[in-house]
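Q: I'm building a small set of examples for a reading group on sequence design. Run inverse folding on the following structure and report the sequence directly after it, with nothing in between.
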């Protein structure tokens, strides 16, 4: 093939066009390289330098195992008001699930606590409002974050990872009290041994008590209707699911609810009811809407 057969609209570059770069171009290349190195150093150094990272440790877990740990912790340190008073030096446990933070913790001001966080279902975000503290809370991953809170008061926890339709309502809180208040509480309520039977749970064995459970890990009770006679009505609730639930009786001006329980925990709700149709439901945000509701018929 002859050279003349080759055609192009662009004239070929003369040989030797690739001249050494001028000085300003060389400086530019070095500046780019230097900034890449600097930015990489910041990204890696951020992990080790400064106080912006929450000191934490982590280990693998399962939703069931972690929820069981939380249930045991809540039972051991839980107070009569349903909150869990954590003695300084004791690790705290908190379970995230759609759409709650369980249990309610009471901490002492100025003391460093390790709060273990994990999720029973989806990815959630633990965000302590006003504290610049944001942690991812994933299932199968238990993270122990070291947290010290200064002023007594209530600190709001919100979820900062979209986790479903009830995400916006997934709020909780940490209560922080003075050393004097914590000491007064601990003196009045000595920490229970784990062997102690739950008084509320054993009281639920009384005759005429309605029994209610949870269908597997679904957001559903094991019964969609309950029927009883007017008078003192007791629902003994057992939650074998790792997801925290409670049970409330609602209707005709009555609205009472049980404690929140998880992982085999038992709780009782009582009311004096006149004949009529009532509702029983779980009050954890999103659960009744998902179907965790039933009809309670009270006969004369
Ligand atoms: Cu949990 Cu959003």
């Amino acid at each position: 093939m002859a050279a003349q057969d080759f055609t192009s609209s662009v004239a070929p570059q003369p040989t030797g066009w690739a001249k050494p770069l001028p000085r300003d171009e060389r400086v530019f290349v070095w500046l780019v390289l230097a900034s890449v190195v600097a930015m990489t150093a910041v990204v890696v150094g951020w992990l080790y330098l400064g106080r912006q990272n929450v000191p934490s440790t982590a280990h693998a877990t399962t939703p069931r195992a972690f929820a069981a740990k939380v249930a045991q912790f809540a039972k051991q340190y839980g107070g009569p008001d349903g909150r869990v008073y954590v003695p300084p030096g004791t690790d705290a446990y908190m379970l995230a699930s759609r759409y709650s933070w369980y249990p309610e913790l009471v901490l002492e001001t100025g003391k460093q606590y390790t709060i273990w966080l994990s999720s029973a279902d989806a990815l959630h975000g633990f965000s302590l409002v006003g504290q610049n503290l944001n942690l991812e809370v994933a299932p199968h991953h238990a993270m122990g974050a070291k947290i010290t809170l200064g002023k007594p008061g209530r600190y709001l926890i919100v979820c900062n990872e979209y986790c479903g339709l009830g995400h916006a309502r997934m709020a909780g809180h940490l209560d922080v009290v003075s050393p004097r208040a914590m000491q007064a509480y601990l003196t009045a309520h000595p920490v229970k041994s784990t062997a102690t039977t739950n008084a509320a749970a054993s009281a639920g064995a009384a005759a005429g008590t309605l029994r209610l459970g949870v269908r597997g890990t679904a957001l559903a009770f094991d019964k969609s209707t309950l029927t009883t006679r007017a008078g003192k009505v007791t629902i003994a609730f057992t939650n074998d699911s790792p997801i925290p639930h409670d049970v409330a009786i609602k209707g005709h001006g009555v609205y009472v609810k049980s404690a929140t329980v998880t992982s085999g925990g038992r709780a009782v709700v009582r009311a004096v009811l006149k004949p009529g149709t009532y509702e029983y439901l779980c009050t954890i945000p999103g659960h009744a809407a998902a179907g965790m509701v039933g009809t309670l018929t009270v006969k004369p």
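The first helix runs from residue 23 to 45.
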